[in-house]
Amino acid sequence: MNDSLPGLREMQMFVAVYETRSFTAAAAREFATQSGISQHVKQIEEMLGVQLFDRQKGVEPTEAGTLFYLHCLEVLEANSKALLALDSFEQGLAGEVRLGVTPTLATYQLAPAYLRLMAQNPNASVAVIDAPSNMLIDMVRAGELDFAIIPSISQPPADLETTVFAATPAFLVSSITHDSGFEHGELIELDELTGHKLLAPDSREYAQWIGSQLEALTGPGPCYQLDAVLATLDLIRQSEWMAILPGLLFVHDFGADPSERDFRLNPFSGAGLTLELLLVQPARQTPSALMLAAISAVQQVTQEHIKLLSGFRSGNQSAVRRLQ
């Protein structure tokens, strides 16, 4: 018996004969000639020193042929797995990227962005942190994150590089059972909030934005701050409190059926209100290709959702106020 096994191509031909029980059918399956298939099988038998088929009974495998067939399947499967594993290294980028986002983006934008990034870069390692803005800034500063995306703040950190990442429309958010007199999707004016209970996001994250808007109100009702997005939404859902929040938090509610809607959303008339999102990264750092790909993936999904929000606003320009 020869010390070496037949090649992969020879094994494929043998397997074809074994499974079809025909040299003619095996030749058609392997895009070869019948004589070529027969010759290869004969060479394998001579190499191994055993008879693989009983030709007196047509093309019937011997006991040795069946045993060799099972081992051929293992070898061919191992070969396919090895090629598949190596093929993945030819796809996309490798390495690690660490990013941080606040709940504004983590709710609906992060998952599709993550899936896109990993589909294009299956060998990459991506770590994501969901935390308040001040914590994310500290982590970028300490080198624990490659970048973070946060709502605009009044005093961006001077020791880090900050650029505008996106601008999301803001909406008045209230419970679907709130007796505000506003219909879902109806355009409203900021001064119509007078007398309503308004819940403002904590000033550490939204001071420059929400503060300037609230100053425009004349004689508003009670206004309190709550530094927790989930707690804010839960309070709105269960009470008469309302809030002005980024539309990116409510992508699900814009196109949902009334029975599946969690909140009532109202865009503001005119130019509306917008909240800028900032990209924060270490100063004087050359971003890796994977980091740029991660930023691009999040930005693409964010812009797609902002486009939906803008369409929701423009589609309601002719909304008529429900008579009370």
TrEMBL record:
<keyword id="KW-0804">Transcription</keyword>
<dbReference type="GO" id="GO:0000976">
    <property type="term" value="F:transcription cis-regulatory region binding"/>
</dbReference>
<dbReference type="Pfam" id="PF00126">
    <property type="entry name" value="HTH_1"/>
</dbReference>
<dbReference type="InterPro" id="IPR000847">
    <property type="entry name" value="LysR_HTH_N"/>
</dbReference>
<protein>
    <submittedName>
        <fullName>HTH-type transcriptional regulator ArgP</fullName>
    </submittedName>
</protein>
<feature type="domain" description="HTH lysR-type">
    <location>
        <begin position="6"/>
        <end position="62"/>
    </location>
</feature>
<keyword id="KW-0238">DNA-binding</keyword>
<dbReference type="Pfam" id="PF03466">
    <property type="entry name" value="LysR_substrate"/>
</dbReference>
<dbReference type="InterPro" id="IPR005119">
    <property type="entry name" value="LysR_subst-bd"/>
</dbReference>
<dbReference type="InterPro" id="IPR036388">
    <property type="entry name" value="WH-like_DNA-bd_sf"/>
</dbReference>
<comment type="similarity">
    <text>Belongs to the LysR transcriptional regulatory family.</text>
</comment>
<dbReference type="GO" id="GO:0003700">
    <property type="term" value="F:DNA-binding transcription factor activity"/>
</dbReference>
<dbReference type="InterPro" id="IPR036390">
    <property type="entry name" value="WH_DNA-bd_sf"/>
</dbReference>
<keyword id="KW-0805">Transcription regulation</keyword>
